[in-house]
Amino acid sequence: MKEMYDVLIIGAGVVGCSTARELSKYDLDIAVVERREDVSCGTSKANSGMIHGGYDATHGTLKAKLSKRGNELFTILDEQLHFGHTRCGSLVLAFDDEDIETLKKLQENGNKNGVETEIIDIDRIHEIEPNISNDVVAALYCKTAGIAMPFQYCVALAENAIANGVDFYFNEEVIDINKKDGTFTVKTKDNEYKAKYVINAAGVYADKISSMICDTKFKITPRKGEYMLLDKCESSKVHPVIFPTPKAHSKGIALTQSHDGNILVGPNAEYIDDKEDVSTDAQTLDSVWKQTERFLINKLDKSKVITQFSGLRAVTDSQDFIIEESSTKGFINAAAIQSPGFTVSYAIAEMLVDIVKKAGLELKENKNFNPNRKGYVDLEKMTQEEINELIKKDPRFARVICRCETITEGQIVDVLHRGIKVTTLDGVKRRMRAGMGRCQGGFCSPRVMEIIKREYDMNYEDVTKKGKDSYILTGKLNKGGNN
């Protein structure tokens, strides 16, 4: 830990990691503190990964201002960071004349935002997705929409930021902030960090963090969305992102094929009080499923659902982002980053850097900045000859650990040595999909634990499912198994 940082970022979600990476272009001392054990453990991991076109963000809002730029940046960033994204396009389905009028309003709003869309009939719809229901009468098509894996995107940003000199500190929950003589002291349960500027990217806790240091007029209300994930055998049924016509509080239940080929159903939108409540329930999920049944001719098979999960969105009464310097000079809020927060995360980072500069931080070019990151080894994209050569160099790439996703020991070892110490099964799963397939880790979990233990010289009981209190093993049995 350095005695003083130029910028301290609170939160290692997509906004925090994007900002860390963008700031690493400059000759600065930068740190990120995160209360969880890894990057992308909050809102950032539990979303659909849609790269929104930007037609639906209300014109004149920050969401609208940043949407087009954020969408465009994904292509540039993927060329540098190799996290993977697909421009699959999106369809907003209309089932009657009233829906068509809504599509026209969406298109008009998109035109104001500089986003090109077209309203198409069922024949054109079937050229894009033959499986769309014949009950659909029209759709709004946005060809620039797409998908990416949100946690792999976040990890790629963090790994590149680390390679460019940013310090990340995990399991560091902020409990107090004060400022004296122009210096912020950010206290966690175990440490104190000093910085000239602080950026608050704490997700659903952004209001709590802000209130530690300044008069905070906004309140974050979590909005929960529940999802179901289907086995890859269903992937042929959905290709573009599919929405119904939107309602006042939500874009509606969507169907998405993830970048890795799984169909995602959801989310719903439910306001809650508990900022830790990521539970799911059968009744809600059943409602989510039923709302999509009219979308397709060849319907999805519910028996192919392999897991379900939920995520929280940070929402305020304004329904817009809060990105500004607070009443305390040098303390900058990036709060209420709800949908399309994933899409615009790097555009937000660019805006935050500009705000910090205007607040007085001198920005000098980091002449050693390297924008590029080597992607993870993807055997599915390699020829058999290339795989054979790889195995000759490292036989671990021949040992399959995860049978559902055909992930090898060599691939897992690679992700463990990228600058972030990954001591959880979920951390490996997010990076390399080991445990994300049909059996959800039933086969590979003990083998992944073995690799983590060996590579980091750890005790088995220190390898967890997802960090604090998610123990898999708690100690050794006595001989005979009595304890």
Question: Helical element count?
Answer: 12
Largest sheet properties: 8 strands, mixed
Cα shape:
globular
| Distance between the first and last residues' Cα | 41 Å
Question: Can you give a write-up of this model?
Answer:
The model has no long low-confidence stretch (mean pLDDT 95). α1 runs parallel beside α5, α2 crosses α8 and α10 packs across α12. The strands form five sheets. Strands 1, 2, 9, 10, 11, 12, 19 and 20 form an eight-stranded mixed sheet that branches. Strands 13, 15, 16, 17 and 18 form a five-stranded antiparallel sheet that branches. It contains twelve helices and 22 strands. A hairpin with a 2-residue loop joins β10 and β11. It is α+β, with helices and mostly antiparallel strands and 483 residues long. The protein is globular, with a radius of gyration of 23 Å.
Report a brief summary of the structure:
The chain is of the alpha+beta class and 483 residues long.
Question: Could you name the key traits of this structure?
Answer:
12 helices; five-stranded antiparallel β-sheet; 483 residues; globular; eight-stranded mixed β-sheet; alpha+beta
List the helices and strands and how they pair.
Elements: E1 5-10, H1 14-23, E2 30-33, E3 50-51, H2 62-81, E4 85-86, E5 90-94, H3 97-112, E6 118-120, H4 122-128, E7 138-142, E8 146-148, H5 150-163, E9 167-169, E10 174-180, E11 183-188, E12 192-200, H6 206-211, E13 221-230, E14 241-244, E15 255-257, E16 263-265, E17 270-271, H7 282-290, E18 305-315, E19 322-325, E20 331-335, H8 341-358, H9 384-393, E21 400-402, E22 407-408, H10 409-416, H11 425-432, H12 445-456
Parallel strand pairs: 1-2, 1-12, 2-9, 5-14, 12-20
Antiparallel strand pairs: 3-8, 4-8, 5-7, 6-7, 10-11, 11-12, 13-16, 13-17, 13-18, 15-16, 19-20, 21-22
